[in-house]
Design brief:
By secondary structure, this protein is mainly alpha-helical. It contains 13 helices and four strands. The C terminus is likely disordered.
C-alpha cells in the first residue's frame, strides 16, 4: 500500500476549518474531539502545519463553549449534556441530541496532543487566550474528578470508571504541566486509580482495545503492564480481520463481534514502543492484508467476514495505518544505514 494513497484518503476528510470528519458516511459525518486527535497524529511527525491546524480548530471549538467550561470548572456536571460535548457538526456546533458526552479520554487526548506538538517544536499556542483555554480544561478535569468519575469512555457507551479514560487524562496533564498550572496531586490521583484498575479496563471489562492508548501514543504504563495488556488483547480480542473492542460487543454484531481495522496497526505501534520488531513486522503484514487497494480503510469488518461496514473510510483507521507503515519504513531505513556503516 502506497502511503501517499492513504494520505490522499485522509485529506478528503479534512474540513476547511482544519478538523477532520470521522467518516464521510451518513452516520459519521461529524467531528469528534477524540477522532480529530487520532486523525491528526501522522502530521505530528511532519514538517508542515497540518497538526497545528487541527488543534487550532479544537481550541476555537472550546472557546465557543467557554461559558459551559467556566461553569464546570467549579460545578461538577450531573447530566451528560452538561459535560464538554464529544461530537459536533462540521462547523463545530453542538448537536441537540442525546449522546454519551461524558468522555474524559477526549479531553486528555487533546491535552496530550498540545504537549506532544510543543515537544516537537510546533506552534500549538497562538496567543494567551489559547493558553487560558488549556488551563480551563485542566480545571474542568479537576472539577469532574476524572480519576473517579464514571464516564462513557472511548466507545461512548454506558458509564463506568474506565482505565483508558483515566490514563488519557494522566497523560494529557503530564504533557501540559510545563505550559499551565497542573497541581501535582491531580496527576497522582489518576495514577492511583490506574494502579487499582489495570490491567483491566473497568469493573465489567477484563480487557478492551481502548487500553492500547496507554501504550501508544501515551506511553504511561510500565513495560510489565504493557505486556499484560497486549497479551490480554492479542489472546482474547484479536481476530482474522482486526480486533473486537471487547468481549460481547453488540455494535455491528451479526452473530459475531465486529472486527475493528485500527486494531492491527495499533498493536504494531504498541509493540514498536516496546522494541519488539518481529511483532511490528507481523502486524505490518496483517494491516496490509486488510487495507483496501484504494486506501479507504473501514471502521470494521462485519461478523467475521471481509465485509466492511458503512463507515468507510474511517479517518482514525486510515491514520493508524499510515503511522504503522511510516514506523516500519523508518525501521527499514535504520537497518540499511546500519548495514552500510558496518560495510564501510
Amino acid at each position: 500500500m502506497e502511503k501517499s494513497k492513504l494520505y490522499d484518503v485522509l485529506e478528503t476528510m479534512r474540513l476547511p476549518n482544519g478538523a477532520f470528519l470521522a467518516s464521510p458516511s451518513k452516520h459519521y459525518s461529524y467531528v469528534w474531539i477524540r477522532d480529530v486527535c487520532y486523525a491528526a497524529l501522522p502530521f505530528l511527525y511532519n514538517n508542515d502545519d497540518q497538526f497545528e491546524k487541527a488543534y487550532y480548530a479544537l481550541l476555537d471549538l472550546f472557546k465557543a463553549y467557554e461559558w459551559k467550561i467556566d461553569i464546570h470548572r467549579f460545578q461538577k456536571p450531573v447530566h451528560r449534556y452538561e459535560y464538554i460535548h464529544a461530537r459536533y457538526s462540521t462547523d463545530l456546533k453542538e448537536l441537540p441530541v442525546e449522546w454519551g458526552h461524558a468522555q474524559h479520554d477526549a479531553i486528555g487526548s487533546f491535552l496530550w496532543g498540545i504537549g506532544a506538538g510543543l515537544a516537537r517544536g510546533k506552534k500549538m499556542i497562538r496567543d494567551e487566550k489559547d493558553r487560558e483555554m488549556i488551563q480551563k480544561l485542566v480545571d474542568y478535569l479537576n472539577c469532574v474528578q476524572y480519576w473517579s468519575d464514571e464516564d462513557n469512555g472511548m466507545w461512548e457507551e454506558y458509564q463506568e470508571l474506565h482505565a483508558s479514560s483515566v490514563g488519557a487524562c494522566v497523560a494529557g496533564l503530564k504533557q501540559v504541566r510545563m505550559l499551565v498550572n497542573v497541581p501535582e496531586d491531580l496527576i497522582k490521583k489518576g495514577e492511583e486509580t490506574l494502579k487499582f484498575l489495570l490491567p483491566r479496563e473497568s469493573e465489567t471489562k477484563e480487557t478492551d482495545l481502548a487500553l492500547l492508548s496507554l501504550i501508544y501514543p501515551y506511553q504511561i504504563v510500565s513495560r510489565q503492564t504493557a505486556l499484560e495488556i497486549l497479551a490480554n488483547i492479542t489472546g482474547k480480542l484479536e481476530r482474522k480481520y482486526g480486533c473486537i473492542r471487547y468481549a460481547g460487543d453488540q455494535y455491528f454484531n451479526e452473530g459475531s463481534e465486529a472486527e475493528w481495522c485500527f486494531g492491527f496497526p495499533w498493536l504494531g505501534l504498541c509493540y514498536g514502543h516496546l522494541g519488539d520488531m518481529e511483532k511490528v513486522e507481523e502486524y505490518v503484514k496483517k494491516t496490509e492484508s486488510i487495507v483496501p487497494a484504494d486506501g479507504k480503510v473501514p471502521e470494521l469488518y462485519i461478523g467475521g467476514r471481509f465485509e466492511a461496514n458503512e463507515n468507510t473510510p474511517l479517518a482514525w483507521a486510515v491514520a493508524m495505518s499510515i503511522l504503522l507503515f511510516e514506523y516500519a519504513e523508518a525501521l527499514g531505513h535504520e537497518k540499511n544505514d546500519t548495514k552500510e556503516t558496518s560495510l564501510g
